[in-house]
Amino acid sequence: MLTKSTLSALIALNLVAVPAIAQQSSAQAAGDTEEVVVTATLNARDSATSPAFTSVITAEEITRTSVNSLADLLRDTVGVNNRSDSLGRDEIQIRGMGGRYTLVLVDGKRVSSAGALWRGGDFDYNSVPLGSIQRVEIVRGPMAALYGSDAIGGVVNIITKAPSQDWHGTLNAEYRGIEGGEEGAQQRLNASVSGALGDRVTQSLSGEIYQRDAWYRDAETDVPGLEEKESASLVSTTRIKLDDRQSLDVDLSYNSDDRPYGIYSGGPSYREQNIDRFTYGLTHSGSWDWGKTVVFLKQEDSEIEDFNSRYDAPQDRTLKEENTYVKVYGSTELGSNALTAGIEYRDQSLKDAISYTETGSESVATTSLFAQDEIAITERLSLTLGGRVDDHDLFGNHFSPKVFVTYALNESVVLKGGVSEAFKAPDAYQSSEQYQIISCGGSCYIPGNPDLDPETSTNIEAGIEVREQAWRLSAVIFDNDVEDQIQASFSEATNSRVWINLSDSHTRGIEIDGRVALSDAVALSGNLTHMFTAEYSSGGDPIDVEHQPETMANLSLNWQLTDALNGNLSANYLGDQVDWSGNPLPAYTRTDITGAYDLTDAVDLRFGIKNVTDVDLEEENSGFYSRELGRNYFLSANYSF
To answer: Contact, 316 vs 53, CB < 8 A?
Structure first.
């Protein structure tokens, strides 16, 4: 856990250091609104005309309701499903692709602890305080042309609040009580402050403490539907303005996420896990007559304590993951061309004295070159060409291209679409021949396989974006083929499982997202994702992807009842799906009612009822993998100064 001396040292170091990130400054320069996204191009672009299909969650939307985690909120956006496991651990799926195909970024930089703890780890979704988030950008579809391996399904970029000149801050406290089921109470405390330390130095600091009791669906159940959790996080950014053209930034953060000792499976089986993560980042941003440059260095060090009663001796293990990232890129405009190019280096070092049986560690490095050209062919027609070459230590060179076209029919309507390729290199635990860990519920082992090939995908998408003053609409059709998917297959000859390039998968569907102002006080928003195809095959007949709803839909009605009182009614629909054995699972709908009341200019209250009808998935069908938290009530108070 974080000691007082360590906390003091972090803050002191950051107060005299240097900060922020190109993503933040770019977005703010363009006007920090929901219309502007930076993840799709590394530059501030209007979401309607950017060469990708994106969604944005704002800070206001995050604070409007109570959530278990950021992933719990993301599942209400179009194309996204949070396939949490039976203990409530999150797995963000985009367009039907599993969680390991979703790349998570904080301020445009990778976050990773899954290399060390690859089974059931959801720590990366909770690495920063909710109160520090300015917005979250979700890019649906492959983004390997800019970000490399892992971005087959899409990218989630968590953009934190930048330091400001004027001193201001917030304090937030929340309590959540559970009526449906047993126990499960939750408490969250958030604090943020930002302001100028001098003429050229600004500072922001955010912290959060979160505590959750284990929740059980009934008094007779031994295995919780939502495990106990205790977490604390701190994010600190200092920005020094070197001159009118340059800034030098530093980001320091700490995250502790503890899942206390408890039963996690029948048998019974017990586990306890904790991660301590320190992150240090240094960024130089320059704005020149010819364009802009960004140079950043990030170091991420994670230590995970992992106890599992299914492990052979020793059952208590220490895992470490150290990630070093260096990225340099620049952007300029030459006539009708907006050019972006850069180089990136990533070094991942993993330490596990038990599972890496020969040396106790494994490391891999990747060096990448990328370039992008946004070509304004006419005033209305734009063509984006992008490509990235990744030189992987073990798997050599891989090229990921992208072609995207946007055409503005008028000031309100944009047609766009493109083709892109992506890849995912095997993780160290899959490819290292010295790696071996217990599997099959404790009855077999699963070793690494050095003969694996990278997984590859081809994605085609096309759609329309409409932006009117009172309403907006986005609709897209997508088709994604993934080849050489890596899966674990059981071998009777060796009584073990082995990683092999076993299957190919195909997802095809449609996404519709929109909102309309029915009056000055009432707004309606909603989205729908329908999968025409979500299947994989291993040489035989196609098999439906397990626990992937055929249809997902969200509808929300927001009403400003008075100047001080706001109400919101929302419904979340998940359609038919199949379990691990291919058996059908029924559709269901979860309904939430929330509200907000401004007591004063500085104090506001948030309150609500979630899962109003107390949907119990175990009661609906025991084959459900995920759980819905029983009917629960929350109350939060926010003080701004």
So the answer is: no
